[in-house]
Design goal:
With 80 residues, the protein is mainly α. Helix content is 57%, strand content 0%. The protein has a domain of 53 residues. It contains 2 helices and no strands.
């Protein structure tokens, strides 16, 4: 997004020759497409999490994190 904003600023300044402006425009369209694909992917992942078809990303794998509930198949397997 930053690259796209910088490109737009250069083009709006009006100091670029026509050929370079065309090249910058093409580059800008590629950047717009890349940004749109990233947004579409993020939207898809959000919808999947909301629908329950994709688990939210697990944060850190800190073994000392007291907020995590351990996976215990059988309560009799508790080591205390």
């Amino acid at each position: 997004m930053d690259a796209l904003e910088q490109l737009v600023a250069r083009m709006e300044a009006g100091d670029l020759p026509l050929e370079e402006s065309l090249q910058e425009y093409q580059r800008g369209m590629e950047l717009v497409r890349t940004c749109q694909e990233a947004l579409d992917e993020a939207q898809r992942r959000i919808e999947n999490v909301i629908e329950g078809t994709e688990p939210p990303p697990s944060g850190s794998s800190d073994r000392n994190d007291s907020t995590k509930v351990p996976d215990i198949a059988d309560p009799d397997d508790i080591p205390f």
